[in-house]
Design a protein that fits this description.
It comes from Aureimonas phyllosphaerae. The protein has 150 residues and is of the alpha+beta class. It has 2 domains: 37 residues; 85 residues. The chain has 4 helices and 5 strands, in the order βββββαααα. The longest helix has 19 residues. The chain starts with a strand and ends in a 23-residue tail after the last helix.
């Protein structure tokens, strides 16, 4: 059995199996068995879920933070991701979403969040219109028309 060691700074929180814990001083935790957890630095607040991928992140996060409501969050995830695949034309984002879907379906939600975090800068570019390759539009050649002639 492998152990997972995590170091937390004073005042930092960690979400473990639905419980929120805060440490009062720098501490080290060792998880000796399988555990569902999320570090505070990876938690997205509802107000920050302002884009499609951030909303998907928030849904996956709910599966980790609230195990009692994980089935409901999973159902929401399953209803949400197909429309995201259809909405994005970026092959890199679509491939990333599919990676996230595969990870979540294998119950590797933390890794799914990590993969989704890597897509957020790309989504920001798309949302700002910078990551979109627009085809060059050539002006239409118009025939010269004589003015005033009848």
């Amino acid at each position: 059995m492998s152990t997972l060691r995590i170091t937390l700074r004073a005042g930092e929180r960690i979400f473990v199996n639905g419980a929120v814990m805060r440490v009062d001083r720098k501490t080290h935790l060792e998880f000796m068995n399988d555990v569902t957890f999320l570090l505070e630095s990876h938690v997205m607040q509802a107000d920050d879920a302002t884009t499609p991928l951030r909303q998907l992140y928030f849904v996956i996060q709910l599966m980790l933070i609230d195990p009692a409501g994980a089935a409901e969050a999973r159902a929401l995830f399953d209803r949400t991701y197909p429309s995201l695949l259809a909405a994005f034309s970026s092959a890199e984002i679509r491939s990333g979403i599919q990676d996230v879907v595969d990870l979540v379906h294998r119950e590797r939600n933390f890794e799914g969040l990590k993969r989704l975090r890597s897509l957020l800068p790309l989504e920001d570019l798309v949302m700002q219109g910078e990551g979109v390759v627009m085809p060059e539009i050539k002006p239409i050649a118009r025939p010269v028309v004589a003015m005033g002639a009848r």
